[in-house]
Amino acid sequence: SFPKRVTLLGSTGSIGTQALDVIRSQPGKFTVTALSAHSNAELLIQQAQEFRPAAVVIGDEAKYKTVKAALASQPETEVLAGSAALADVAGRDDVDVVLTAMVGYAGLLPTVRAIRAGKTIALANKETLVVAGQLITELVKEYGVGLYPVDSEHSAIFQCLVGEEQNLIEKIILTASGGPFRGRSREQLAQVTKAQALKHPNWDMGAKITIDSASLMNKGLEVIEAKWLFGLRNEQIDVVVHPQSIIHSLVQFEDGSLKAQLGLPDMKLPIQYALGYPQRLPNTFPRFSFLDYPQLTFEQADTTAFRNLALAFEAMGRAGNAPCVLNAANEIAVAAFLRDEIGFLQMSDVVETSLARVSYLAAPSLDDYVQTDHETRRIAQELVGQV
Ligand code: NDP
Ligand code: MG
Known about the structure:
- This protein is of the alpha/beta class.
- The protein has helices at residues 14-24, 41-51, 64-70, 83-90, 108-116, 126-143, 152-160, 186-189, 194-197, 207-215, 217-230, 268-276, 307-318, 322-338, 344-357, 366-386, and strands spanning 4-9, 30-37, 55-58, 78-81, 97-100, 120-123, 147-149, 169-176, 237-241, 247-253, 258-262.
- Helix 1 (14-24) links the parallel strand 1 (4-9) and strand 2 (30-37).
- NADPH dihydro-nicotinamide-adenine-dinucleotide phosphate (NDP) binds next to helix 1, helix 6 and helix 10.
- Its cofactor is Mg(2+); Mn(2+).
């Protein structure tokens, strides 16, 4: 029922700011209980002044004073700092939905806290399900909460599944744009620059996911995300490259019928669907026309050139803490690539070697995941240093 009280973690990012656009465009449907940023104090302050939430969290404790001072005339907004505060606002009483729009492993603990507090989760932070998909899905069952995908591919599948029985899924097909380097060989990929990698053909997103899209790690993370969201066996997940990003993904059922969800590449629609679920809310998002896209094309993903996709399938197959290792090593590798410390192909080298080196755990606890993440970051950072 509306209005829904929303906590928006990562409100200053690409998903976060678009989620606030959605909220603005639906007067009376949503109220904002809490907002969080990592270091962008300026935008967080501006958002707090507009939405007047009960709390804001600035991750970077050095910026606490700045935010506190700027919001001094707004006593209804409590100002908090640090990562523990992020988990605290995720579990507040006066919240219905927590939208996890922060990037990376940092999403895990606040999401766990929100589930334990009985909150509905609108999940943008795919890393949470990659790191600890089994644990998260078990918690979701135990606490009886809804967990609705924001990621466009998963939203597509979720929408295709309305009115269907999950146990009649034969397989899903995740579409991938192929990114800016689609069609390049390994030799060519060795030469690509950070500036080229940061230019995605169809989507405007945060830096980390943009690099992941260029390396196809994003699709690998999405394969693992889909496994847990939809309770699939590994063999039930396929990937097809579809450069126009119009078909957002497909589900095939056991009678052979294939359902797809289509639309222009615009994250506002899946964000709104996750926030509004089970209700589909009217909106004036730009409409898709077939006449603007006379050709929708499909090709196989090149896992030889884009090794990350193969590594993600491998990690999913090994299960246990392997996907957690994959994720942590990738976060270190992407950060190093963004600092110009390693080349494009070396990102998958760091991931592959980390997967071989970090001790394997078949049935990790939450503490084990925290440990694995920590150990992997240390090893991956060492590998970066040796390049
Ligand atoms: P951005 O980099 O644009 O934004 C990230 C947000 O998280 C910012 O608010 C940032 O704060 C905050 N943040 C950064 N580091 C931390 C940290 N260590 N702890 C807490 N908060 C932090 O990312 P996106 O919005 O692009 O992506 C967010 C998530 O959504 C990712 O998991 C991504 O995979 C997923 N996603 C994104 C899509 C997109 O179109 N952008 C599509 C599908 C999924 P600050 O601004 O202060 O740095
Ligand atoms: Mg996606």
